[in-house]
């Protein structure tokens, strides 16, 4: 049984990872939309100021600058909050980055309901749908700070455009430092025989808080949302015959929709439940647990779904 090892900041892990990579990758540039401290970029800015471009509160222009740098041969990370990038500058990302297959990594922080008291305007719940729909775009959502560093390392040396989804608060650490990260691959974090549970980010890690986690549940971390590890997912569902997807995102366009399409196209018969935000906007709360429970993706709903699938 895998237990949470503690709590750490995914955003801070990103800042540390990008600083370390910049030491040896002199081709790496950062384009920031005036939110450097929120993504812990201070060390990078102080050490590599010539490779840091402050675009200000102009997200569309920032995406265009990033695309231009990439076409000049640079590896570019474009950083902001997810509610601004990719939400505001999606058209520029489509035309200037994806259409040209430019080597730009879009980093959207403060995604999902975990922005808490910032409320609906900052709780980006549609980012995966936006980015999954774009040709050439790869999409990733780390489960914790440990995996975040590994993903950053991987995409920094990948030639393709990608989107990295980060959350605001410190979150449980469940990803072993010994595990590798490979683009297009998932990890079975807990083996089981009766129910396949799929997810990404802290919404999935909360399952490790269940008091009696046994060999009934097979928990798969789908941090590589696009490309998706279809073989691992299908193999598990063929074994269990039951699938539960949990995600802090709209039902439309998220991981659950991708998995449902995969199941149907593969001709599998299984019981299927998708827990996600159901066609609603977020709202403010100082306690993010209340938000998870209110929108039906918290532990009470997970427990009820497991019981329903086992009937």
Task: Present the secondary structure layout.
Blueprint: E1 7-9, H1 10-24, E2 28-32, H2 42-47, E3 52-54, H3 59-71, E4 75-81, H4 90-98, E5 104-109, H5 127-132, E6 138-140, H6 145-156, E7 162-165, E8 170-172, E9 187-190, E10 195-199, H7 202-205, E11 217-221, E12 224-226, H8 230-240, E13 242-250, H9 255-266, E14 271-277, H10 288-294, H11 299-310
Parallel strand pairs: 2-3, 2-4, 4-5, 5-7, 6-7, 10-11, 10-13, 13-14
Antiparallel strand pairs: 1-8, 6-12, 9-11
How would you describe this structure in keywords?
single chain, 311 residues, alpha/beta, Rossmann fold, 2 domains, seven-stranded mixed sheet, five-stranded mixed sheet, 11 helices, globular
- Please give the largest β-sheet: 7 strands, mixed
| Multimeric organization | single chain
How many distinct folded domains?
Answer: 2
Strand portion = 15-25%
Secondary-structure-based class equals alpha/beta
Total helices: the number is 11
**Cα distance, first to last residue?**
24 Å
What is the CATH topology assignment of the largest domain?
Rossmann fold
Q: What ranges have pLDDT less than 50 throughout 5 or more consecutive residues?
A: none
CATH superfamily of the largest domain: Thiamin diphosphate (ThDP)-binding fold, Pyr/PP domains
Q: Taking strands numbered 1, 2, ... along the chain, how are they ordered across the largest sheet?
A: 3-2-4-5-7-6-12
Strand tally, please?
Answer: 14
Q: SSE string, helix = H, strand = E?
A: EHEHEHEHEHEHEEEEHEEHEHEHH
């Amino acid at each position: 049984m895998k237990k949470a090892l503690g709590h750490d900041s995914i955003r801070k892990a990103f800042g540390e990872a990008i600083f370390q990579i910049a030491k040896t990758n002199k081709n790496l540039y950062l384009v920031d939309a005036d939110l450097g401290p929120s993504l812990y970029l201070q060390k990078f800015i102080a050490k590599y100021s010539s490779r840091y471009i402050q675009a200000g509160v102009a997200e569309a222009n920032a995406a265009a600058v990033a695309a231009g740098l990439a076409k000049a041969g640079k590896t570019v990370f474009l950083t902001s909050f997810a509610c601004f990038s990719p939400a505001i500058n999606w058209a520029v990302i489509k035309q200037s980055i994806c259409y040209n297959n430019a080597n730009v990594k879009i980093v959207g922080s403060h995604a999902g309901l975990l922005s808490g008291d910032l409320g609906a305007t900052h709780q980006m719940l549609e980012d995966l749908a936006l980015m999954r729909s774009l040709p050439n775009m790869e999409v990733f959502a780390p489960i914790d700070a440990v995996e975040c560093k590994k993903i950053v390392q991987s995409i920094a040396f990948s030639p393709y455009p990608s989107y990295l989804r980060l959350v605001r608060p410190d979150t449980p650490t469940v990803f072993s430092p010994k595990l590798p990260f490979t683009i297009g691959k998932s990890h079975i974090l807990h083996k089981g025989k009766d129910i396949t549970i799929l997810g990404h980010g802290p919404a999935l890690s909360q399952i490790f808080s269940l008091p009696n986690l046994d060999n009934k549940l097979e928990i798969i971390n789908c941090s590589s949302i696009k490309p998706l590890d279809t073989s691992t997912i299908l193999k598990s569902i063929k074994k269990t015959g039951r699938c539960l997807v949990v995600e802090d995102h709209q039902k439309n366009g998220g991981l659950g929709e991708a998995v449902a399409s995969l199941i149907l196209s593969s001709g599998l018969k299984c019981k299927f439940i998708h827990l996600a935000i159901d066609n609603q906007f977020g709202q403010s709360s100082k306690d993010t647990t209340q938000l998870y429970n209110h929108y039906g993706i918290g532990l009470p709903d997970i427990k009820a779904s497991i019981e329903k699938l086992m009937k």
